[in-house]
Amino acid sequence: MKGKGFYTFTEYMKKEERLMSAAMEDYLEMIYRLSKETGFTRINELAQALNIKPPSATKMAQKLAELKLINYEKYNIITLQPRGRKLGRALIKRHDILEEFLKILKVPGNLLLEEVEKMEHTLSTGTVKRIEFLMKYLKEHSEILENIFSK
Questions:
Q1: Which residues pair with 78 in a beta bridge?
Q2: What is the pLDDT of residues 110-123, one digit of tens each?
Q3: What's the rounded Cα separation, in Å, for the pair 131 and 124?
Q4: Distance between CA 117 and CA 115 in Å, rounded?
């Protein structure tokens, strides 16, 4: 079967042109969540929310600032730039779509977050959009799910 276009997972991921790594996406998503109400967050809050040490959060904040996604100010204050806010909102939407999809599939709660995190960094935007359309269809035709999960 040589030459049929199969690659390892790592090679597939290398083929994608991405602005940010999965870790950068996680940080930006969390910055968006934490700053949604106040307009800012702090390095210590970010580190605590992601279960990491503050120096790691500082390092990533500096990288995101270089990409002009956030402002990283003195005294550890982080604010989103317009592009970062837009991207953060899109990351939250992607997360929510995948979480809702897995809930529809009755993925157990103790696995839900872990599965969403794995999926959200590997699926293309087009695939997530198709999942969103599928969920809308399944909501409108709930009998389909009832038939699947009643067996």
A1: 41, 72
A2: 999 999 999 998 89
A3: 11
A4: 5
- Sign of CA pseudo-dihedral 84, 118, 45, 94: positive
CB 106 within 8 A of CB 89: no
Which token pair is 15?
A: 């083929």
Separation of alpha carbons 13 and 17, rounded Å: 9
Give the integer Cα–Cα distance in Å for 13 and 80.
27
**The predicted structure's pLDDT at residue 51:** 96
Average pLDDT for 102-114: 92
pLDDT category at 15 given cuts 50, 70, 90 is low
**In this structure, what token pair is assigned to residue 12?**
């597939």
Q: Which two tokens stand for residue 33?
A: 């969540």
CA–CA distance from 51 to each of 34, 43, 44, 111 (Å)? 14, 12, 10, 18
Question: In the structure, what pLDDT confidence band is assigned to residue 65 with cuts at 50, 70 and 90?
Answer: very high
Which whole-number Å values give the CA distances from 36 to 86, 89, 94, 150, in the listed order?
A: 12, 10, 17, 40
